[in-house]
Amino acid sequence: MLRYHTVPVTPFQQNASIVWCDDTREAAIIDPGGDLDHLLAEAQRLDVKLVQIWLTHAHIDHAGGTAELAKRLNLPIIGPHPGDQFWIDGLPQQSVMFGFPPAGHFTPTRWLADGDTVQIGHCTLNVRHCPGHTPGHVVFHSPDIQRAFVGDVLFAGSIGRTDFPQGDHDTLIASITQRLWPMGDDTVFIPGHGPESTFGRERRSNPYVRGT
Q1: How far is it, in rounded angstroms, from Cα 212 to Cα 200?
Q2: Positions of the region Disordered (predicted)?
Q3: pTM greater than 0.90 (yes/no)
Q4: Which of 63, 72, 101, 141 is close enough to 58 for a disulfide, judged by CB 3.0 to 4.6 Å?
Q5: CA–CA distance, 138 with 161 (Å, rounded to integer)
Q6: What residue spans define the domains of the chain?
């Protein structure tokens, strides 16, 4: 059984998620944007062993701590999609621009594509490529527990920004309607910022995607 614990990090209150297999206690951190000591303390409190880093996309608040964490614990970096290479290359500049601690760029151990899977212990999650917020954004979906880790594609009551370089509103809406909605109305999603919601609730009430 997959379990998870969400930890808001950085001044942007980005939802980093520790996900783990209840059988093996092996864990991954999704989007370690910063505050690494706090994230590591939470992993220790949960009594899990960090073995992977998973990235939805490479904006500073999601990926800023990745290079340091990978180096500290010798962890593989899984994701995002190659479309975010330019964002990874620009992480040092992003950190200066937004007043974050210095962030290093990195080369993912494994790039992800639509239809891939990732595994932690005995738990397998599906990967969907969901561009629009960034060109290389991916989402991690666990059908077994009806949970999706969607980064900045969709929020409770809102959607991701598309005014960054290579963002595109129409592409984002298509990602939501074609890649997220088929996961089912009852699926709970963990966004990159703010509270959890369900796809069904957003289809009914989110002004940006209501009725799609």
Answers
A1: 11
A2: 192-212
A3: yes
A4: 63
A5: 15
A6: 2-205
